[in-house]
Amino acid sequence: MKKKGILFIISAPSGSGKTTLCSGLVDSMGGLSRSISMTTRSPRVGERDGMDYIFIEKEEFLKRKKKNEFLEWAKVFNEYYGTPKRYVKHLVAKGQDVLLSIDVQGAMKIKRLGIKTVYIFILPPSMAKLRERLVGRSTDSKKAIAKRLKVAKKELSYLPRYDYVVVNKVLESAIENLRSIVIAERCRIGRK
Ligand code: 5GP
User: Fold this and answer.
1) Which of 35, 118, 164, 166 is 20 to 30 Å from the Cα of 158, by its Cα?
2) Which residue has the least CA distance to atom 6 on ligand 1?
């Protein structure tokens, strides 16, 4: 029987360095692909359509949502984000492991669907450090930063629902921990 791929979900408060960690993990690991989400938010400087996200209009997102094209979707900071179902299913069926970098709402939706998934939570070293990173990023206003910190506190309450936690204090060590999780899950007995 062909071995199916493993689904990994990584969630983290905004500003935890999740994007860098996910890229570091996928780039250093064979057999692991990142799912590319669709979003209604505008691209940030340096982001490329079809690479970082698939950027679509709200109307199109809602149409796709209605057609049940998303494995999960969520409204985050007033914009829609969704995981394209077909692409992920195709990769998993091929035996490719897939990394979903999604928020806690989306992760909990997948949990409710009963899909076998490995849940990983990324923590910033501290709330003070998180604030520092958000301010340093200088893409958000003071008000937006305050909102992101408030949301981050709420997201942290979901930590016990996850299987693993990785603190992003030193980038290389955090990536090494993520790699170890993927390797351990690949060695797990009883995975179908
Ligand atoms: P950002 O706009 O900063 O790239 O992402 C904002 C939040 O949306 C992050 O927590 C990110 O993980 C989450 N996100 C990105 N894609 C998806 C998705 O397809 N589904 C869900 N539920 N959240 C997503």
Assistant:
1) 35
2) 76
